[in-house]
Write a structure and sequence with these properties.
Elements: H1 3-24, H2 29-39, H3 44-68, H4 74-95, H5 100-113, H6 115-120, H7 134-139, E1 143-147, E2 151-155, H8 160-177, H9 182-192, H10 197-221, H11 227-247, H12 253-277
Antiparallel strand pairs: 1-2
Length: 278
């Protein structure tokens, strides 16, 4: 495949990834990396570098729209970003010391594990509203948003310390796998802190770019970021993310969760198979 064809296909694949990322809080990287490696034959570490750049673009494209629509919980995002950024730096430093097959298998295994909470709550529209715990109340992490069907939706996050620990782990995976840790952020907020799915998605998009940027410079220094590949990939991801940000307010929390499950299942099995075959 020549360079021009690769760039065109990277743009197209990244556009789809950006759309899915904006709708499900994935950041796009979790789709871009398998597309580049499995479909286009790009070496894994080069794909991870392009994915990180595209993840930053995706976050920028979707986050502004979600803040405007009132879906993003800024206080919660800033609180959790402290943990996930530290984790991202740790993961990026480990990435060069882990074999490529092992990265594929870890990537796929984490994806499949993240399906369990989503399957358990597939029919849930909103988590029950409960009084906040002491730390959540002190930090004023609760919020509300306007839903086009349900009206004003109020929510109170639970177990803030658990969410903080989970976010550090999400950051490690972000730096190690170059995916922005979107699904793991959504998992921590949806299953760990019991936040409505659309708020989890929007807040994840807000956080993803910072997490990816924290580890991208390490990939740049290691020579894993190819500008001719990363450029069209980032542009495609940004285009898809913008379209996705226009669609999300019209979807229910149940629909968002149902979009997430098949994507994660397919990618998880594909990456494990790739790792085992090497």
């Amino acid at each position: 495949m020549n360079g021009e064809s690769l760039r065109v296909l990277a743009f197209a694949g990244a556009s789809l990834a950006g759309l899915l990322g904006a709708l499900a809080g994935l950041g796009g990287g979790i789709v871009i990396t398998p597309v580049l490696t499995l479909a286009l034959g790009v070496p894994l570490h080069s794909a991870l570098g392009a994915s990180l750049v595209a993840t930053i673009a995706t976050s920028s494209g979707a986050a502004a729209a979600y803040v405007r629509d009132g879906l993003t919980n800024l206080r919660l995002g800033i609180f959790l970003e402290v943990a996930t950024t530290g984790g991202a730096l740790s993961g990026a430093l480990l990435a060069a010391h882990v074999s490529t097959p092992a990265l594929h298998i870890v990537f796929g295994g984490v994806l499949l594990a993240s399906l369990i909470p989503s399957l358990v709550r597939i029919a849930e529209e909103l988590p029950p509203l409960v009084p906040p715990d002491a730390l959540t109340a002190r930090l004023r992490l609760g919020g509300e948003y306007q839903d086009r069907t349900l009206g004003t939706v109020r929510y109170e996050p639970r177990r803030a310390p658990l969410g903080f620990v989970l976010m550090y782990g999400a950051g490690v995976l972000s730096g190690l796998l170059g995916i922005g840790s979107g699904p793991f952020k959504v998992l921590a907020m949806d299953a760990g802190m019991r936040i409505p799915m659309k708020v989890s998605t929007a807040t994840s998009n807000f956080m993803i770019g910072v997490t990816a940027a924290a580890s991208a410079w390490i990939y740049l220094r290691a020579g894993y970021i190819d500008a001719q590949l990363a450029g069209p990939t980032a542009l495609g991801a940004l285009t898809g993310a913008y379209v996705g940000s226009l669609i999300l307010p019209y979807l229910s929390n149940r629909t968002v969760r149902k979009l997430l499950i098949p994507v994660l299942a397919w990618l998880g099995f594909a990456m494990i198979r790739k790792g085992l075959s090497q």
